[in-house]
Specification:
Layout lengths: L3 E3 L6 E3 L6 H13 L16 E5 L6 E7 L2 E2 L2 E2 L6 E3 H6 L7 E6 L1 E6 L4 E6 L4 E13 L5 E11 L10 E3 L4 H9 L4 H12 L6 E4 L11
Parallel strand pairs: 2-11, 4-12, 7-12
Antiparallel strand pairs: 1-9, 3-4, 5-6, 8-11, 9-10, 10-14, 11-12, 12-13
Length: about 220
């Protein structure tokens, strides 16, 4: 699972959308600067932060803030919902009827049994996107918001010894299709093939001192 990820405002290389949208990039920099020094965590009973998300409400990429994990009847879902297994979407593609891209510069996982945190990504300063499925939900305060769940797939061989799953990354060339195409088994299969095309670029580094907490970078 992906239990934490970060967004470094100092990113120097954006591999997020097929057509770079400076307004979106500046919005991400502004959000990350306002939240610098804190790692994104699952929103829930005690943490109610809204995180940046790229959606396509009118056919073009747009930036909004959203709740990580699904809300049901005004409360966090009783089932695990911050992540969704890719195999489940292949079996039930209707679960991908509404989708988004989660911008990040790295995600964090704990290697067990050593209990050493690792930061995974595509290299220093690279902003990239993780596939997500979305739905609407009502917050405990009664406000309607977009909720999202990061799509997870089996880890590539060079990372499997650290953690068995990784987020399904969205290459820029596949971003528009992921945001707007019909929710079919073929779309999910194509998304996984697109994610696998980035495997050779993925790497991880140990973070034994901070245990994945604290700084975004």
């Amino acid at each position: 699972m992906c239990a934490s990820y970060g967004l470094d405002p100092r990113f120097t290389d954006a591999e997020l959308l097929a057509e770079a949208d400076e307004e979106i990039l500046e919005g991400l920099r502004s959000w990350a600067q306002d939240n610098a020094g804190e790692t994104l965590r699952p929103t829930g009973r005690n943490l109610r932060n809204l995180n940046p998300l790229i959606t396509s409400p009118a056919g073009a990429p747009a930036l909004e803030t959203a709740w990580w994990g699904f809300l049901v009847d005004g409360a966090p879902a009783r089932f695990p919902s911050i992540n969704t297994r890719s195999e489940r979407l292949q079996q039930r593609p209707g679960g991908a009827r509404s989708r988004a891209i989660v911008p990040t510069t790295g995600w964090f996982e704990m290697q067990k049994p050593e209990r050493v945190w690792h930061e995974f990504g595509m290299g220093p300063g690279v902003l990239f996107g993780m596939a997500a499925v979305t739905q609407r939900g009502r917050t405990p305060d009664g406000e309607w918001t977009t909720c999202y769940s990061i799509v997870m797939r089996p880890a590539p061989p060079q990372l499997a010894h650290l953690h068995d799953r990784v987020p399904a990354l969205v290459p820029p060339s596949f971003s528009q299709e992921w945001l707007t195409a019909d929710p079919t088994r073929e779309l999910v299969d194509e998304a996984l093939l697109a994610a696998a095309s980035l495997d050779e670029r993925l790497s991880a580094r140990a973070r034994p001192d901070d245990k994945g907490d604290g700084m975004l970078f």
